[in-house]
Amino acid sequence: MGFRMAAAGPAKNNLLSDLPKDLSSELMAGATTRKLDANEVLFLAGDPGDGLYRVDEGLLKVSIASASGAERILAILGPGAVVGDLAIIDGLPRSATVTALRDCKLSFLSRAAFDAFVMKEPRTYKYLVTMLAARLRDTDQLVAAGSFLPLKGRVARALLDLAHAFGNEVAGGRVVIRQKVSQSELAAMAGIARENVSRIMNDWMRAKTVTRLSGYYCLEKPAALKRESEL
Fold first, then answer.
1. How many domains are there within the chain?
2. Of 40, 74, 86, 98, which has fewest CB within 10 angstroms of its CB?
3. Within 13 Å of residue 187, how many CA atoms lie on the same side as its CB?
């Protein structure tokens, strides 16, 4: 599906964000509404790729699982984000599982509706090429991070991605992540064992690099985390 490790919030590197507003509005005019309850599965890896979904309200989790059942979170997506847009291009089965973290309201566009639209508006293909190139760059960054970043760097990257999506800057340049995230979820985002995340977070909390209050993480020293996340 081509997401960043923990992309979220506003749409990025998807067809709808690349299309001019008039084309995007026209494309989604034929969309239907779908609602999900928290923890409900939107689709599973391997399901038919029958269309795309835009998040209008709520949060979605995009994940894959190993044969042993270990989960890797590829993305947490908020309003404006899109899932399944590659499926309308290649028609292949879903490559990841998508689950609602909160109650969600979604707009669904079928592959048939998309095909009809691009027949009428062939200039859409230009924006598809731009989107696919951006996805490829994101994939390169993800592979590099998993290959070369130390464990602390991977956790820092996950926290910074969450801060980009859900962060509120407060006094002194500190950033509060307004989304509760467990250490298990951080581990699944970073692609490392939960025990390693626990050790790293404890180190950062002792150093006052990160704090936690009522389940919300606060990045006390975002610049230090950024340095940790750099290749």
1. 2
2. 40
3. 15
Looking at the structure, do residues 178 and 135 belong to the same domain, yes or no? no
Domain residue limits at 206? 149-229
164, 174, 158, 187: which is closest to 213 by C-alpha? 174
Please enumerate in sequence order all residues whose Cβ is within 8 A of that of 185, keeping only pairs 6 or more positions apart, or say none: 73
Same domain, yes or no: 31 and 141 = yes
For the stretch 37-90, pLDDT in tens is 999 999 999 999 999 999 999 999 999 988 888 888 988 888 988 898 888 888
Provide the whole-model pTM: 0.78
3-state helix, strand, coil in the chain (%, to 5): 45, 25, 35
Mean pLDDT of 195-209: 97
- The total of other beta-carbon atoms located within 10 Å of residue 146's CB is 14
Residue 16: which H helix or E strand, with range? helix 15-18
The answer to whether position 7 is within a domain reads: no
> Could you tell me how many helices (H) and strands (E) the chain has, helices first?
9, 12
CATH number of the domain bearing residue 30? 2.60.120.10
Beta-carbon neighbour count of residue 117 at 10 Å? 18
